[in-house]
Amino acid sequence: MTKQRFTVLSIEDSEPDFVLIKKAFDSVPDISLDLINIRNGKNALDLLYKRGDYLDSPKPDIIILDINLPDMSGHHILKIIKNDQNLKLIPVIMFSTSDSEKDIEESYRLYANSYITKTFEIKKLFEKIIVLAEYWLKTAKLPSTSNFCLMHKAIEEKTINDQGEKNENTSDR
């Protein structure tokens, strides 16, 4: 059986939490995985919008997003993703130590696809991540990566066309 290939973007500033995510995802049979970890919001948005060092980054099939990041809130990143026509179809799983009803409700209000509370019991946390991986990568049907690439190409072409029209308009003056 051919393994299906997935790209998972983890936006997680805690190295131990990321290592656990990686070990859990790696333990799921019959999937091949590119797991990318970004430790702050700015770089995560650069990757999603293919800016700077991330011009050739693949589109993630799912995003695992911590709420508490060093430079911006995970809720802020979630809002940006879910308000963007080109990103909003990517499932976003909130992954946080917070079990506050306020954080949970805010995540779902901003259209998170799931909310998982990190536990300090490593074995239980590992099991939660395996369930998450098996559901999103083996059970759920995800949007096509090719649609995402086509959308980005259309945006790039529109940007180039808009810049060309802008340059033509300014040269008439």
In short:
This protein is of the alpha/beta class.
The level 1 CATH classification of the largest domain is: Alpha Beta
> How many H/I helices?
6
Structural class: alpha/beta
Fraction of helical residues: 40-55%
Instruction: Compute the separation of the termini in Å.
Output: 64 Å
Number of domains: 2
Shape: globular
Q: What is the H/E string?
A: EHEHEHEHEHH
Q: What is the CATH homologous superfamily assignment of the largest domain?
A: Response regulator
Mean pLDDT: 85
Using only C-alpha atoms, the radius of gyration works out to 18 Å
Q: Give the tally of β-strands.
A: 5
Search tags:
single chain, 173 residues, alpha/beta, Rossmann fold, 48% helix, globular, disordered C terminus
Give your account of this protein's structure.
By secondary structure, the protein is of the alpha/beta class. The protein folds into 2 domains: 4-142, Rossmann fold, CATH 3.40.50.2300; 143-173. Helix content is 48%, strand content 17%. It has 6 helices and 5 strands; from the N terminus they run βαβαβαβαβαα. It has helices spanning 15-26, 41-48, 74-82, 101-109, 122-139, 145-171, and strands at 4-11, 31-38, 62-65, 92-96, 114-117. Strands 2-1-3-4-5 form a 5-stranded parallel β-sheet, with helices on both faces. Strand 4, helix 4 (101-109) and strand 5 (114-117) form a beta-alpha-beta unit. Helix 1 (15-26) packs across helix 5. The longest helix has 27 residues, at 145-171. It is globular. The protein starts with a strand and ends with a helix. Mean pLDDT is 85; it is low at 147-152 and 169-173.
